[in-house]
Amino acid sequence: MKRTLFTILLVVSRQLCGFAQTHTTGIELLKKTVIGGEGGWDYVSVSVEDRRLYVSHNNQVEVLNADTHEKIGTIPTKGVHGICAVQSLGKGFITNGKANNVTVFDIKTLQPLAQIATDEDPDALLYDKFSNRVFIFNNDAKTITVIDALTNKVIKSFSVGGNPEAGVSDGAGTIYVNLEDTNEIIVFNSKTLVIKKRFTLTPGEQPTGLAYDKETHRLFSTCRKSQLMMVMDADNGKEIARLPIGKLTDGAIFNEQAKLIACSNGEGTITIVKELAPDKFEVVDTIVTARGAKTLAFDSKTEHLYTVTAQLGDTPAPTAANPKPRPAIIPGTFMLLEYGKKL
Hints:
Elements: H1 2-22, E1 28-34, E2 44-47, E3 52-57, E4 60-65, E5 71-76, E6 80-86, E7 91-96, E8 101-106, E9 112-117, E10 122-128, E11 133-138, E12 143-148, E13 154-159, E14 164-169, E15 174-179, E16 184-189, E17 195-200, E18 207-213, E19 218-223, E20 228-233, E21 239-244, E22 249-255, E23 260-265, E24 269-277, E25 280-288, E26 297-299, E27 304-309, E28 335-340
Antiparallel strand pairs: 1-28, 2-3, 3-4, 4-5, 6-7, 7-8, 8-9, 10-11, 11-12, 12-13, 14-15, 15-16, 16-17, 18-19, 19-20, 20-21, 22-23, 23-24, 24-25, 26-27, 27-28
């Protein structure tokens, strides 16, 4: 009995020591702000230049000060998913999943400027400075709508053969996009819109978040079903590494300064991976957040991470109309969480 107890204590001690050794980044919760209101959420984005946060929240975008979390205003939408602000043009773009369109807004007044029709279920979006275009990833339609960011005119919608999720640009004319249902990354030219390559992510399944290191040409695709971060060579699609991440991932960022990749997991964690060399990666931290905090944004000025969630209640029983029900959202508890290193 004594020997068994000693063995158990020794194993637990080793596990605790091993867990402690993985926490090497010093990243922790810096600030929590309750925004309130009702309804769900999706993406959050940071406008570094004017210090604004754009937070998706049901049928509106909450606009906050990135440093103080003070509320600046709101932008009405219909089922908001993604938001991006383009400082050089003085305007931003919002995907409205329920309305199948994009709202263009003035970044100073927050007033809507235009509505642009898309295909079904516009979800994530990407502004590409090289082509001065906005790419709208229509998940259910399996298409991408391309908008001229200057004129707000649709250039083209084209089929991609799968459900597009997050996308990234290499800044030189190439766009990479996760296809959630086919477990691929498509590669296309931002001006000709010709799909040049398809990278298979297997054993990665259900890719959602995507980040990119321009220096080493590495793609980081976070895959929800397989709970893996797939590191790929952006030039040829070769698998470089696969790393374990948390459950229900839906976002990824790359910190160029620190060579860190962070992915947010809806289970209530952020997985931090360190790029030790172009072909060497390891998990160095698992940060506890809160259940439902599935997406994240990165502030390159402060190197802080932002995520959003709310207090969640019970999950209703599945029905024919709703076979995959989500947990109930407790009204008034919607919150912003900011993570970083304490000064």
